[in-house]
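Fill in residues.
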């Protein structure tokens, strides 16, 4: 096949899938991988195995995991598709049998009865399991070394058993938060079906401890949420599911900024009636950074678009980092823009999730005149020191595109933000990828190590780190 994916922008350039599975035992390295960096970096992304239809959207390709294993200053690589039911069905027919989105993307009849779970969005290590995540179905468990798919992880059947009478049996999140003190995994789910919102928690042993419905004000596409040590925060943006008002291609969403944005604040151990709601002007966010509770004040940092998701046109703007401050004692929600440079896909020191924190690492762009927030525009990595109100920039070469940063502490007792940032970078001029290891003590300088891939790795979504020995 000379050009197997010819008809869609999400199948061209570095969006195009990588169609080989391989093992590379010892990648070439420029610089030095720190000896203390021992463990595995995983990244998930959308990677359709067969030419999809014209209505294909990047959000709906089959998940492929790329793994980089670090040991003794060396790095090996392998990649595998997640063996979902839909992947197996496509292999059986040798064709893409799932369409895109909207009526024009209706699936092939051969997809009838096959779960659409693409398992393509995130991959995390929790309670001794490597889990590939999708937000409309349960995780898939993978072998952390070989990436062999072990199967659907349904929490020993509890995922469906405890919610058998609910209207949204399949909702999950691709953006759980892990409490650094308790090891608890906190998640949510959203749905076009009332009551539109679900809350999940899993304890450090991997047992599903909560999974119940909440009540949202309207059915919103909410890709991420926030957690502090005391609260779970549910941002409801006015990108509203409406299957009657939408037709043809695209997500079944209408942008209704007049509804405003709502933030639900739930005590982590609360029930439906404990949710407090706060109002804000209509805006949109795909991704959050971190939250903290200080007495009666809750602080939430997230990337905000001033308009609806996936908008295109002269009025579209890239997302920027903003801080919401919520007064639980009867005040409202106020917003502060922390920086005017475009930023997205952020992380913090995992030991500070849900807590007071100072350092955040994000994708960024410093010359963004024509940049609307698409992945191609993120030509830098940012380090925000929120205490000093300062931004450091790790600028890539011309045409290069950064991947989501992943922060790893230098040592268990290192200061917050002292460690390494990994980022899978696309080198446009070479049509190839490198994994950067940036020392945060010299964030703007040359990377400590550039791990050279012999080929490109497609633009993807999210990744994370598993320390060796866990
Ligand atoms: Fe995401």
């Amino acid at each position: 096949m000379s050009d197997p994916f010819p008809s869609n922008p999400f199948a061209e350039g570095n969006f195009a899938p990588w169609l080989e599975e391989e093992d590379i035992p010892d990648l070439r390295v420029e610089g030095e991988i720190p000896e203390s960096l021992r463990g595995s970096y995983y990244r998930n992304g959308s990677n359709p195995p067969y030419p999809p239809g014209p209505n294909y959207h990047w959000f709906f390709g089959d998940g492929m995991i790329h793994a980089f294993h670090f040991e003794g200053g060396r790095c090996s690589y392998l990649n595998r598709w997640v063996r979902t039911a839909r992947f197996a069905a496509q292999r059986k027919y040798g064709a893409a049998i799932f369409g895109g989105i909207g009526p024009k993307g209706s699936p092939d009849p051969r997809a009838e009865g096959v779960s659409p779970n693409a398992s393509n969005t995130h991959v995390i290590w929790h309670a001794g399991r490597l889990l590939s995540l999708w937000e409309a179905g349960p995780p898939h468990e993978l072998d952390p070394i070989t990436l062999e798919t072990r199967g659907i992880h349904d929490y020993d059947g509890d995922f469906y058993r405890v919610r058998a009478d609910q209207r949204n049996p399949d909702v999950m999140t691709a953006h759980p938060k892990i409490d650094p003190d308790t090891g608890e995994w906190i998640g949510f789910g959203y749905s076009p079906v009332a009551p539109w919102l679900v809350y999940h928690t899993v304890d450090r042993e991997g047992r599903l401890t909560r999974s119940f419905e909440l009540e949202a004000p309207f059915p919103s596409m909410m890709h991420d949420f926030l957690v502090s040590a005391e609260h779970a925060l549910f941002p409801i943006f006015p990108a509203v599911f409406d299957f009657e008002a939408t037709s043809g291609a695209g997500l079944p969403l209408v942008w209704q900024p007049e509804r405003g944005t709502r933030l639900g604040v739930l005590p982590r151990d609360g029930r439906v009636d404990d949710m407090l709601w706060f109002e804000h002007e209509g805006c949109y966010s795909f991704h959050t950074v971190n939250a903290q509770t200080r007495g009666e004040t809750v602080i939430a940092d997230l990337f905000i678009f001033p308009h609806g998701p996936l908008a295109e046109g002269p009025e579209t703007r890239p997302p920027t980092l903003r801080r919401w401050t919520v007064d639980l004692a009867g005040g409202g929600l106020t917003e502060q823009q922390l920086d005017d440079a475009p930023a997205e896909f952020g992380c913090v020191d995992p030991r500070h999730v849900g807590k007071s924190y100072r350092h955040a690492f994000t994708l960024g762009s410093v010359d963004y005149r024509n940049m609307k927030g698409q992945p191609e525009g993120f030509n830098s990595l940012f380090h925000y020191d929120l205490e000093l109100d300062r931004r450091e920039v790790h600028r890539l070469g011309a045409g290069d595109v950064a991947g989501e940063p992943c922060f790893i502490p230098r040592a268990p007792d290192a200061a917050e933000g002292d460690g390494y940032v990994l980022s899978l970078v696309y080198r446009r001029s070479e049509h190839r990828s490198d994994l950067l290891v940036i020392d945060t003590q010299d964030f703007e300088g040359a990377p400590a190590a550039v791990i050279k891939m012999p080929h490109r790795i497609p633009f993807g979504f999210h990744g994370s780190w598993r320390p060796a020995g866990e």
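The longest strand covers residues 63-71.
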